[in-house]
Specification:
By secondary structure, the protein is of the alpha/beta class. The chain is built from three helices and five strands, in the order H-E-H-E-E-E-E-H. A five-stranded mixed beta sheet has the order 2-1-3-4-5, covered by helices on one side.
Length: 171
Amino acid sequence: MRRILSYFIFTVSAVILLAGCTISYKFNGSALNYDIYKTINVGEFPIRAALVYAPLQQTFENKLLNTITKQTRLQEVSGTSDLEMTGEITGYSLSPQAVGTDAYATETRLTITVKVKYTDHVNPSNDIDQSFSAYRQFDSSLMLTDVQDGLCEEICTELVDLIFNATLGNW
């Protein structure tokens, strides 16, 4: 009986003590003040690279818009907005990375570079004009056409995370 009474007193004390404390976290990844920022205009990101993989533009744009939609409360609009994001895919390149004993590459690196212009029409000091790059390596014995879709998905996810953190995440 004494044990139950001690447990009850401890529990009630803990509840009373913690009732006055509040902890607040933002789990959406965004550092925006939604009283100020309500809209964003995300333009197209055309491919301006020497090598072109046609599905890349749509893959990147979809991932970017999905991330903005899921991690912010901004309304995506065309035309005048509080925030604007435009850019282009400036790099899509393959480069050998590891060379085997026969002097042929054993690994190849696929690198994608995106140039982003982020304009904050409310606070221009937040503007960014920057390039972001990400890459994945794959075994050179594989054909690029066999791994290209998966690699582009992974790279675009990483690029979108980098861009989001540098702009809307305000890290």
